[in-house]
Write a structure and sequence with these properties.
Oligomer: heterodimer
Structural class of chain A: mainly alpha
Strand content of chain A: under 5%
Mean pLDDT of chain B: 84
Largest interface: A-B, 99 and 100 residues
Number of domains of chain B: 2
Number of strands of chain B: 9
Distance between the termini of chain A: 33 Å
Shape of chain A: flat
Strand order of the largest sheet of chain B: 2-3-9-6-7
Radius of gyration of chain B: 36 Å
CATH architecture of the largest domain in chain B: Orthogonal Bundle
Chain lengths: 295, 446
């Protein structure tokens, strides 16, 4: 690079209609390819939904796509039956308790610890934090057997609290990691001046840190909510009668062929709520994902 | 993350003033803020890790049971269900991370060229929000073996229909003992001569299989130097007389009829709407006539995607369907953070799209690609839900993976906490390199 005195001006292509059409034609293959892939990606979910609105008699002999030629097959009766199914209603409630309880707990405890790691000074802080990072990758299989035994003693077996607490513990390393890294980036002066003004740490935490950390907290909440809502293994191990919806459907799954008119709509109900949460807060979800992986 | 070119001294946090009166108070506040989280981590993670490691050297039952040394670990590599699980998991590790990263990269690069990238990304990313369990149910519906019910086999059927069209009659059988099977077709036992008539009666044809153009069957009159005949559905309500063309019995159009001399095919033709056919210019001699194999070709019956041999590939496809969106989004973020001027420079220097991609984009994206790759390795090592939900009980053993084997060994009637712990520790050891990587990265950043 020698003397670059004058900025090089790249002439903008003249945007005539012809040029625009030419561009569209050139881009047509990519557009068509991606359109096909996008549709392909949606097919299984659409298939599940259509299956869920077909009566068992139709499903015994027909494929779900035949609804397009026989629209009269479709019926809401599967859903009607499910909403009167007390097992499913209980399972949905349990799922909500676990997911919401867990999310609140992870956010609160994670934010407190994240704040301590970011802005409080105490001996061994960095070593403790390294320990927390170490726990990030511990597979939850490592805790299934010991906690299975301990839950008996603690009377947590087969309770939603037990399942939620298990998720909380395993969600905390990521929560602390994410929030600590976010809090560290907050401007120091605000905290300092609040301290000089005599605000207590708890006041700083509630009035300053939590509001300022909202973007990261939102990402974390959505992550935790989806993760817990969608869990199968933990609930399968620690629940027996108190089970979330995934385990409830798994119980029906043994007779896949015969109870597809229960399984399909129940599965669709189970994914509608995370799907809405995801669509509504997609941005935060992606941010959390990036913070978790690219960092 | 960035490696500085100039060696700067590490920035040290300002040392806290030693005699500050509030210092002890700060320690206390720190302890209060940390205590709840640390309590949970200690009880639910630290204690279990220690316990499970110790437990893995003890027998199946009890709080500890009796000491068995490393025999639990030995059984990891000697019990057939566990070796299957390890083998399958190795396939997962070999296939999924590479595939997901590649697919994500291609999608991320392509979406940069379209205006509706957000819609595309949402569609591909959607499966990430759905539980792996619901995905399992979804794909079970897709994978049904009957092409009439499973969408993938239905697609396979329409593709195979182009190359190996199903016969007009896949279920038909001869109506009289005079017709005998030959190869995959059937032939008339009695030899024919020019001006002969071949009556090829078939039954076992469901009404829905009779082509809609079919008309009342007729017996064509004999012709000199010709062998004529008819193929018809030798059945009418009430039964009718086998071997006779009667009123109310339909001819079967489109059937391929063959004329053979000494077992060699000399002529082929197709039956008309009334089932009649004619071989013309037949020289004197002895012939046999029959219906060709193509007529009876069975339609595509569908692959057994959930059967023992295809179950793991089926699972991999469904899993890639879930995670491609993750890879795409992370890589797309990396792409948008890439210095545009480098790309511009490459293009200005005359590099083709492919060269720019291969020589500039991919190397610059390497850190992001490796993050996706490593994340996928961890995910795949711990895979559980989708196998549990998608593989039917009959083939779950064939689809076994480490996490599933651990669950069935320790719980669900397995009840062997010793081997179960050993499997968990084995899984833990497999992810430790990643743990080391994480800690190193943090130390570099701090």
């Amino acid at each position: 690079m020698a003397v670059a005195a004058e900025p090089i001006v790249v002439p903008k292509p003249h945007d005539t209609t012809a040029a625009r059409i030419l561009r569209m034609v050139l881009k047509a293959p990519v557009n068509l390819l991606l359109l096909a892939i996008g549709c392909l990606w949606l097919v299984p979910t659409i298939g599940l939904f259509i299956t869920s609105i077909l009566p068992a008699s139709a499903l015994a002999s027909k494929g779900w796509w035949q609804v397009f030629s026989h629209p009269s097959m479709a019926t809401w009766s599967n859903y009607n039956a499910l909403f009167h199914n007390s097992g499913l209603i209980t399972a949905l409630k349990t799922t909500a308790y676990i997911a919401v309880g867990n999310t609140l707990l992870v956010v609160l405890l994670g934010a407190m610890a994240g704040y301590a790691f970011a802005w409080l000074d105490f001996p061994g802080r960095d070593w403790l934090f390294i320990g927390v990072i170490g726990l990030l990758v511990v597979p939850l299989q490592m805790a299934l057997i010991p906690m299975f035994r301990l839950y008996d003693t603690l009377h947590l077996f087969d309770t939603w609290e037990g399942i939620a607490l298990f998720h909380t513990a395993f969600g905390l390393p990521f929560a602390i990691f994410l929030l600590r890294n976010f809090f560290v980036g907050l401007p120091r002066d605000i905290m300092e001046s609040a301290r000089i003004d005599g605000a207590s740490e708890i006041r700083i935490f509630i009035k300053l840190i939590l509001p300022l950390g909202l973007p990261a907290i939102a990402s974390l909440s959505i992550f935790q909510f989806l993760w817990t809502w969608n869990d199968l293994l933990v609930a399968l191990t620690f629940g027996q009668n108190t089970t979330p919806i995934t385990v409830w459907i798994a119980g029906q799954l043994r007779e896949f062929g015969t109870s597809i008119d229960i399984i399909a709509p129940a599965s669709f109900i189970s994914l509608v709520i995370p799907l809405c949460v995801f669509l509504a807060f997609q941005r935060y979800f992606v941010q959390g994902l990036l913070a978790g992986s690219v960092k | 993350m960035s490696q500085g070119i100039t060696a700067e001294p590490p920035v040290l946090a300002a040392p806290p003033p030693g005699s500050e009166p509030g210092r002890l108070g700060q320690y206390l506040t720190g302890a209060i803020f940390l205590a709840p989280a640390l309590l949970l981590l200690a009880v639910w993670m630290a204690y279990p890790v220690v316990y499970t490691i110790i437990r893995s050297f003890y027998g199946p039952q009890g709080f500890l049971g009796h000491w068995v040394g490393i025999s639990n670990y030995k059984s990891l590599f000697t019990t057939s269900t566990l070796t299957t699980a390890i083998k399958n998991n190795a396939i997962w590790v070999a296939v999924v991370p590479a595939f997901v990263t590649a697919v994500g990269l291609v999608f991320a690069v392509l979406t940069e060229r379209i205006r509706w990238a957000v819609a595309f990304k949402t569609a591909v990313f959607l499966p990430m929000a759905i539980s792996a369990f619901a995905t399992g149910v979804t794909w079970r519906i897709m994978y049904q073996q009957d092409p009439g019910q499973g969408a993938i086999n239905a697609l396979g059927k329409s593709i195979s229909g182009v190359f190996h069209p199903a016969g007009v009659l896949s279920t038909a059988v001869p109506s009289t003992p005079g017709l005998v099977p030959a190869g995959k077709g059937i032939v008339l036992k009695t030899p024919l001569h020019p001006d002969g008539v071949a009556l090829l009666g078939l039954t076992g044809i469901p009404p829905t299989d009779v082509p809609s153009s079919a008309k009342q069957a007729v017996t064509p009159p004999p012709q000199p130097d010709e062998i004529v005949g008819t193929v018809w559905r030798d059945f009418k309500p009430g039964g009718g007389k086998p071997g006779l063309v009667e009123q109310g019995e339909l001819g079967i159009p489109g059937v391929s009829v063959v004329l053979k001399e000494n077992g060699r095919t000399v002529q082929t033709t197709k039956s008309g709407e009334d089932g009649s056919f004619a071989f013309t210019g037949v020289k004197a001699g002895s012939y046999t006539a029959g219906v060709g194999a193509a007529t009876f070709a069975k339609p595509f019956g569908g692959y057994s995607w959930l059967g023992p041999s295809l179950i793991t590939p089926s699972l991999l496809i469904a899993y890639i369907w879930i995670w491609a969106g993750f890879a795409m989004v992370v890589i797309a973020a990396g792409l948008s953070a890439m210095p545009r001027d480098v790309l511009e420079a490459a293009r200005t220097d005359g590099a083709s799209e492919w060269q720019t991609f291969r020589r500039v984009t991919v190397p610059l994206l390497m850190p992001v690609l490796s993050v996706v790759f490593v994340t996928m390795i961890i995910n795949v090592l711990k895979v559980f839900d989708i196998v549990y939900a998608l593989a039917p009980e009959s083939t779950q053993q064939n689809a076994n993976v480490i996490a599933l084997a651990m669950y069935y060994t320790a719980f669900q009637g397995g009840g062997n906490f010793g081997v179960g712990s050993a499997i968990a520790v084995f899984l833990f050891i497999l992810v430790i390199p990643v743990l080391a990587l994480n800690i190193r990265r943090f130390k570099r950043e701090a």
